[in-house]
Design a protein that fits this description.
Strand content: 35-45%
Radius of gyration: 13 Å
Mean pLDDT: 89
Number of helices: 2
Distance between the termini: 21 Å
Structural class: alpha+beta
Order of helices and strands: HEEEEH
Largest sheet: 4 strands, antiparallel
Shape: globular
Number of strands: 4
Low-confidence stretches: none
Length: 78
C-alpha cells in the first residue's frame, strides 16, 4: 500500500527540512510505475551515514504491485 510518504511531496519535506538527499528507485511496465522504493541519505553523529527508507514516515520500504517487483527493488536498494 502506498501513502503520502511514498510521494514526491514527502521527499520535498525531508530535503528542505532535514537536508536529507532522496533517491527513488522504481520499476516501470508499459509506461506505468508498478513499484517504488524511496531512500534517503541520513547523516548523524551516532550512526554516521545510512540510506533509510522514509525517515519519520509511518510506513516505509517498498510499495509494489507484486512480489517479483518488490524483490527487484529490494535488491536494487542493497
Amino acid at each position: 500500500n502506498s501513502d503520502f510518504f511514498h510521494l514526491s511531496g514527502w521527499k520535498y519535506v525531508l530535503e528542505k527540512t532535514f537536508r536529507y538527499k532522496g533517491y527513488y528507485f522504481y520499476v516501470e511496465e508499459n509506461e506505468n510505475i508498478c513499484g517504488i522504493l524511496p531512500l534517503f541519505m541520513v547523516r548523524n553523529l551516532l550512526s554516521g551515514k545510512a540510506l533509510v527508507s522514509l525517515p519519520f514516515g509511518v510506513y516505509g520500504s517498498v510499495c509494489s504491485d507484486n512480489e517479483t517487483i518488490r524483490e527487484i527493488l529490494i535488491n536494487k536498494g542493497k
